[in-house]
Amino acid sequence: MSTTTYVRLPATTVWAVLLAATLVTWTLGAGHAVLVNNASVATVFVILIAFIKVDLVGRYFMELNKAPRRLALLFHGWSLITASTVIGIYLLI
Asked: In this structure, what is the dihedral angle of CA atoms 27, 29, 30, 31, given to the nearest 10 degrees?
């Protein structure tokens, strides 16, 4: 495969998105007041981005996009419910 072939792979695009999301969460979580001034809002965004990253890894690197539809929906549902629960608990405490 040539270099341009690797760039066109969905995994390469997802990897770049994961890298960008990591930089955003680092900026939010490292005490930088660049994007958000409120720590609670920043924390909720970090959790949301983390679960989006979980979903992307499951879909493209664990190949859930090629899995049976029920399995993929189960994973996406688990991800959504777990993210909502973690954010809810954080906001209650």
From this structure: 100
Q: Whose structure tokens read 């997802």?
A: 14
Look up the pTM and report it: 0.82
Neighbours of 47 (CB within 10 A): 16
Domain range annotation of the chain: 3-92
28-56: pLDDT as tens digits: 877 666 667 788 888 899 999 999 999 99
